[in-house]
Each structure stands twice: as structure tokens, then as C-alpha cells.
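Task card 7
Instruction: Convert sequence to C-alpha cells.
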Amino acid sequence: MLPRFDIARLTPKDDRAVTTPTGQKTTVGEWAQQLKIVYAPTWVLFDASGEVFRVESYTRPFHLASALEYVATNAYRSEPSFQRFGQARAERLRAGGKNVDLWK
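Output:
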């Protein structure tokens, strides 16, 4: 799933220059403030129009993988409920014979 993304790992207190996905030139710290990032880790997922989904703080692997799939497959455009998307994903995986443990 990750190869579908351009990934930047940043620290909110960083003062290095950065160009945001919208082309704005700023520092990492200023951009983090603009995005209102208050938890670490935070995953902010963008498409060409801007931020589309966010995962704040530690998340279990199933939920993080679901969030990445939600954005990578553009499912957020047709299914506005991430909860429903995750439930459908779990059911699909289970129907395919995979064990889905939401606590691991």
C-alpha cells in the first residue's frame, strides 16, 4: 500500500524549509501549526485537492492499513464513513480466509 504514496516524515518543531502539496513555501514547524498537528505520530493524507484524511496518535495496524487503503483507493469519495469502510474491509478479509484481529 505504501508505494502508492509520496511519504515525508517530519518533526513539527523543525525549522527547515518545505514546500507543501499546494506549493506554499514555509517551514515544517509553521506548516504543522497550519495543519493543527497536536499529536505524535500524526499521518496527514492528501490528494491533489488537499488533506483528505488524518490519523492522529498511535493506531493499531489494521486501522492504519485501512486508513491508507481508504485514501489510496479513493474510497473516501464514495464512502464518507471511515467506520463503515473499515467494517466492510474486515468482512472482505475474513471472507477471503484471513484472520482479522482489531487488537493486534
